[in-house]
Every structure is written in C-alpha cells, then in structure tokens.
Amino acid sequence: MYFIGGIKMESSKISKGANSIQISGIRKFYNKVIKVQGAISLTLGQPDFPVPDKVKRAMVRAIEDNKTVYTSNAGIDELRNEISKYLKRFNINYSKDEICITAGGTEGILDIFQALLNKGDKVLVPDPSFPAYASCTKLLEGEVITYGLYGSEFSIDFNELENKIKNEKPKFMVLSYPSNPTGTVISKEDNEKLHKIIKDNDIIAVTDEMYSALCYEDDYYSVSQYEDIREKVIVVSGFSKTFSMTGLRIGYVCAESSFMSSILKVHQYTTTCAPSISQYGALEGLKNCDEDVQYMKNEFKKRRDYVYKRLKDMGFEVRLPKGAFYIFPDISRFGMTSEQFCEKLLNEAKVAIVPGSAFGEKGEGFARISYAYSKKELEECMNRIEKWVEVQNNL
Ligand SMILES: Cc1ncc(COP(=O)(O)O)c(C=O)c1O
C-alpha cells in the first residue's frame, strides 16, 4: 500500500513494473548520512569541481540570447556535430544524425530499453553494475539475466557469457566500461572476445560509456569501435561526469538509423528535447574545455592513488581502478554483509560508503568508495576508517 499526497493507493493501482523496483541502494545510503551527525559521505558519483567557467559563461550567453525554447528533438546540430568529432578521439564513428541528446545518461538508458524491450524479453546485465540496467529492465517487465564479473580484475567469464546468450536468448546485453562500481576498463583482448561474441550471435550490445573521459590507461577500448558490428551496438554516454555538470542533465545515445528512429520516438515522448541551455553548455565544454577535463582527470588520478595506498596499508584487499572515480575494496574478512559493514562504519566511524550489494549479488562482500571528493575529505575519511579498522582487528 502507498500514500501519495495523503491518498491511500492500493499497490494494484501501481504498474507491475513500478511495483517491482526500489529506490537505488546508492541513494538509500546517501539519505542515511544526513541523519548521522558529523558523518562524511563518500557515496555519490558527483565530482567536487565546479562546472568549468567557460561552460557557465556559455550558458549565461544562451539565456541572454533567449535560447530558452525547444530545440529539435535530437538536440542542436552544433552539439551533435561536436560529439561526432569528439568520439573520433576514441576511434568511435557516428555521424550527427546517429546521435540523440538526452536529459542525462539516465534518460538515454531508459530510452534505449523502451525502444528495444517487449514484456518478458530478457536482458543480460553485468553483476556487479550500475543499478539502472536491472531496474529499467524490471520497470518494463523484462527479465534480468546476469553475467558475473569475477576475480581481482572483475573480468567477464566468456564461457558463462556465451552459454547465457545461447541458452537464455536475451534480446540485448549491457556492457559498462569504465565500470561503476569497480573502476574496471575493458582490455584489448576482452574487447576482441566481445566483438567475436556479438558478431557470431543474435545479440545487441548496449554499451554505457559514461566515464570514457576518465580512463587512466593510454588506450581506450569499446565494442563500438568495430565497424562490422555497428548495426548491433548502441552507445549511451554523457557529460555529467566529464564536465562536472550532473545537475545540468546532458547525455547522449549513438546508434545507426534503424535503432535511432525508434529511440528518437521514445525520447520525444519522454523529454521532447534535452534542456536547451545545458546543450549550449556542453557544446562549449567540448569545444574549449579540454584543459579543465585534463585537470580534473589528473586530480582524480592522484586521489585514486592516495585512497588505494591508504586502503592497502590498512590491509584491505583492493584493486587499483583503471577508470571512473570509484574504488571497490573487499570487505568480506570483517564477517558482515556489505550492508551491515556500511551501517556499522557509518554509525561508528561516521563515514558513509555504499554496500556492494547495491550493485548486484556479486557485489556482496565489497563496498564502493567514491573518490570524487576533496583531498581533505578523503584524508579525514581514511583516518577515520583506519582507526575503526584497528578497533575491529582487536575485537
Ligand atoms: C555507469 C553510469 N551510467 C549512467 C549514469 C547516469 O548519468 P547521468 O547523471 O548523466 O544520468 C551514471 C551515473 O552515475 C553511471 O554511473
């Protein structure tokens, strides 16, 4: 039973899809922090840098020039052209007409799922992964099938993946690199294996590359780089993290025309168009803010190295992330579920991090720390965790 505006609602009045999902575990934990006095949160994927000045000024100019009206559904041509150029840096080729600007990556994900999924269709989702993939599937009454990410590198077991594709016959599979929550990037070898699987099987790949600008390796790999499977691949990405503009809501979807025409229909009835002012901001970001992005990336890399070293020194089993701004230590030695671990850490050490179980069954035994926070906050949190771990070790 639900209460909306004081009115009692039977759950039968709510769609099966909406009844089957919950508020994300990330937000659930973030909301708990507010209630614990003195707690510091390392829960959110929100960079602590302000949006670059040039982006701010471009948005002010856009307001003054009255660019506050609907744009075309797919978004302004200049931005789509600029994204097309930008993607070439990653060896990814989409023309302006194969790109649709969305209200954040989140809208992009739901648009793709709505365009592809019928009730009962199966979706192959990585475990652990960003919770939206499983939730969007359930919302549309699809069935979630997971493939595990294993070992210290959170790697795909290609036998498992191929068996699931052959036996479960999912409509599409989700790939998500650099990964939230593990920080893994796809290797050249694994990208080649994925290419072969997609080519040889009746499967579409939806690849979420939200953190592509935050890859700390020299080379970037993605299944969207292969021309011979481009009719089987859809890319979703965006600028929330790249330009630290999470609240401005600019994402994008790339797909060849047979997918794009349907994605555009869904997008039209969901959002009409992404916020016009923010589109001009993202355009400026792409044209003139490479230095700001590089600065943020260097800072994240320093913070990553710092948090990794501190955790290692405390005795955590943890892998150095190669992308995004999350680190995913193993907490299983503490003999608690990840939820219990994070509750206890929050109440006793006053540090909030996210239980690995919020990202799927295989996330159990881990916890996600976001290092998109200031060095000062990270230092304080690491000191608090260190003291707390010492107490746990002596229990
Ligand atoms: C992997 C991944 N994809 C998509 C999104 C959604 O991004 P946006 O804020 O642009 O909707 C996030 C946000 O954290 C994410 O981590």
TrEMBL record:
Swiss-Prot/TrEMBL cofactor(s): pyridoxal 5'-phosphate
Enzymatic class: transferase
Gene Ontology terms, MF aspect: pyridoxal phosphate binding; transaminase activity
Its EC number(s): 2.6.1.-
Superkingdom per UniProt: Bacteria
One Pfam short name: Aminotran_1_2
One GO term (biological process): amino acid metabolic process
Entry keyword set: Aminotransferase, Pyridoxal phosphate, Transferase
Residue ranges annotated for the Aminotransferase class I/classII large domain, each copy included: 40-385
Family: Belongs to the class-I pyridoxal-phosphate-dependent aminotransferase family.
Protein name as catalogued: Aminotransferase
Organism per entry: Clostridium acetobutylicum (strain ATCC 824 / DSM 792 / JCM 1419 / IAM 19013 / LMG 5710 / NBRC 13948 / NRRL B-527 / VKM B-1787 / 2291 / W)
